[in-house]
Design a protein that fits this description.
It is built from 14 helices and five strands. Helix 6 crosses helix 12 and helix 12 runs antiparallel to helix 13.
């Protein structure tokens, strides 16, 4: 335990230092000039301070106020040594942060008794702080484990959905990565971007409820079949929205809103503008870009230039113009992901 001693009287300082040395596991950190104390801060390390009130340059109250300007010293026990019994002086010491007084001349037995009590107090505080830190670490660990389980659930559900429509390949993965990059370009927080990346692959989970005759049809859908296909948005939302997981709730929001249009002509609720959740607006752009640039049995893949022009032309009608601008800003990184995951998909097909 390090005890800071500040007293301009050398005789008093030597006496206090000797008294501290007699305390178990205690070490005196002595200064005769209060200016030297401030010079050493904030590197100076101590647990308890004993400060003389009447000193040249800085009196005890002024020194204590300077010390408490450093966050690391706030709350450390301070004892003021003074021969002044005036209540005004003592109140000034208490207001500055002193918790106790010692009268001059210092009684050695009283000093050691006070220090033993303060050492016990500091040790108890340290134990509580250690326990609080341990609890915080345990909570962080448990939270991380829950998060990892949520991510695994989303990954497993995305894989399950891909079995129903195997032609989409790594579509859901790419949409998640593109959405993350668009969200970053929009200036969303790292936590929001991460959540969108994880939740976006669930955007089409509702397709598990679409009849195979409609979902897997190679030709153009009839009006009735298209109406049936549109219900995948609400089905996906229904599957996910009752979850207590914030990630799955976000995925439900995305599932329900990624086919809404900025001009209100989308589905299923014909939302428009800012009424469409931002995650849904982001995924709408990412989903559309990947669908256009990916080959399917019923269509050729569009070039990147064609797809970008298509999305740009539909800003303010189909897409949120801010999301389109963010998409174009993030395009170099999006193309890297597009190439990487496309190559991986080809490898998977070749080795199947």
């Amino acid at each position: 335990m390090r005890i800071l001693l500040v007293d301009d009287n050398q005789t008093n300082l030597v006496l206090l230092s000797k008294l501290v040395s007699r305390l178990p596991d205690c070490e005196a950190v002595s200064f005769s000039d209060p200016s030297d104390v401030l010079t050493e801060m904030p590197k100076l390390d101590f647990d308890i301070a004993v400060i003389d009130y009447q000193m040249p340059g800085y009196n005890g109250v002024e020194l204590l106020r300077e010390i408490n300007m450093f966050d690391r010293y706030k709350g450390k026990p301070v004892v003021m040594v003074t021969a002044d019994t005036d209540m005004t002086t003592r109140m000034a010491c208490l207001d500055a942060g002193s918790i106790d007084f010692l009268n001059k001349p210092v009684n050695p037995l009283e000093f050691q008794a006070r220090m033993k009590n303060l050492v016990a107090l500091v040790e108890a505080r340290n134990k509580l702080a250690d326990k609080a830190e341990w609890l915080r670490q345990e909570v962080d660990k448990a939270t991380l484990e829950i998060r990892e389980r949520e991510e695994e659930i989303i990954d497993r559900l995305s894989i399950a959905a891909s079995f129903k429509d195997s032609e989409t390949g790594l579509h859901t993965k790419r949409v998640g990565e593109y959405s993350d990059l668009i969200a970053k370009a929009l200036g969303l927080s790292p936590a929001e971007c991460s959540d969108i990346r994880l939740a976006a692959p669930m955007h089409d989970i509702g397709k598990v409820g679409i009849p195979d005759a409609v979902l897997l049809k190679k030709g153009k859908l009839t009006e009735q079949e298209f109406a049936s296909m549109q219900t995948h948005t609400l089905l996906g939302c229904d599957i996910l929205r009752e979850s207590k997981s914030s990630l799955l709730q976000l995925a439900a929001e995305i599932a329900a809103s990624h086919h809404e249009r900025w001009d209100g002509q989308g589905y299923p609720r014909r939302l428009s503008g800012a009424d469409i959740p931002i995650a849904g607006r982001i995924v709408a752009v990412a989903d559309n870009f990947d669908a256009l640039t990916t080959a399917r049995p019923y269509k050729e893949a569009w070039s990147v230039g064609q797809a970008v022009a298509h999305i740009r032309e539909r800003a303010e009608t189909q897409f949120d113009p801010a999301c389109v601008e963010a998409f174009e800003k993030a395009l170099p990184d999006i193309l890297k992901v597009h190439q990487s995951l496309q190559d991986h998909e080809i490898e998977m097909v070749a080795t199947a």
